[in-house]
Amino acid sequence: MSAASQIAKDPAAPPMLRQFALTWLGIISRTTATHGKTFKIYGARGIKVWPGWIGDEGFWRFATWAALELGDRPGPGYSIDRINNNGDYVPGNLRWATARQQASNTRRNRFVTIGSETMTISEAARRLGISVSGFTYRIKLETQPRPRLSPKPKHICALRECNYEARPGLKFCCSKHKRLHRNRVAGAIRRGRKLALRIGAYQNRHPLYVV
């Protein structure tokens, strides 16, 4: 068992040294353990560790450098993170960062420029006081061309007029106008029948006598 593993499992070890041991083990696992779950996003991408930090002696070099350059952990929510997400684990590319800062330092992030400052979408949404989904929806509205509202085109019929009378050989340009003509004819017939009934009733009430 390596010295870092022993220190990481020893609850009596100094907290700062134990934190450095856990960090160093995680770095070695991400970059060298091909069977690990995180190797594909670290070691497989070409992320490497500075050769001076490999092995037991490398752990002590890492712990010494971190104690002198980074110091003790600022708070319980901090962990060591790379400044350049595409860079290696080398001196000068590590820092203490919060979980929010680390989430803003990934390859999946999308960046926006507001004024002269470039930031992630989540950071911009947080500053504006809105949700990330609401911010991305606003970006979508601004980047996509807005459809121009045009009046619905009117259907131009080949017939000049629709008559109530059915003419032989009458052709319609579409089924819509055919139905329209049929409905108009049927309506005229109904109105004609009603008018004939009303005229007949009037004649019955007021018979005309021819002298």
- Which shape, going by the Cα principal axes? rod-shaped
Residue share in helix: 40-55%
Strand content: 5-15%
Question: What are the segments in which pLDDT stays under 50 over at least 5 consecutive residues?
Answer: 153-168
- Terminal CA distance reads 136 Å
Give the strand line-up of the largest sheet. 1-2
Give the C-alpha Rg.
41 Å
**Biggest β-sheet description:** 2 strands, antiparallel
Mean of all residue-level pLDDT scores: 76
Our count of helices gives 7
Number of strands: 4
Sheet/helix structural class: mainly alpha
Brief synopsis:
With 211 residues, this protein is mostly helical.
Helices and strands in order, then pairings?
Blueprint: H1 3-9, H2 15-32, H3 55-69, E1 78-82, E2 94-98, H4 99-103, E3 111-114, E4 117-120, H5 121-128, H6 132-143, H7 175-205
Antiparallel strand pairs: 1-2, 3-4
Helix pairs in contact: 1-2, 2-3, 5-6
Question: How would you describe this protein?
Answer:
This protein is mostly helical. It has 3 domains: 3-108, no CATH class; 109-143, no CATH class; 161-206. 45% of the residues lie in helices and 9% in strands. The chain is built from 7 helices and 4 strands; from the N terminus they run H-H-H-E-E-H-E-E-H-H-H. Strands 1-2 form a two-stranded antiparallel sheet. The protein has a two-stranded antiparallel ribbon with strand order 3-4. A hairpin with a 2-residue loop joins strand 3 and strand 4 (117-120). Helix 2 (15-32) packs across helix 3 and helix 5 packs across helix 6 (132-143). The longest helix is centred in the C-terminal third of the chain and has 31 residues, at 175-205. The chain is rod-shaped. 11% of the residues are buried.
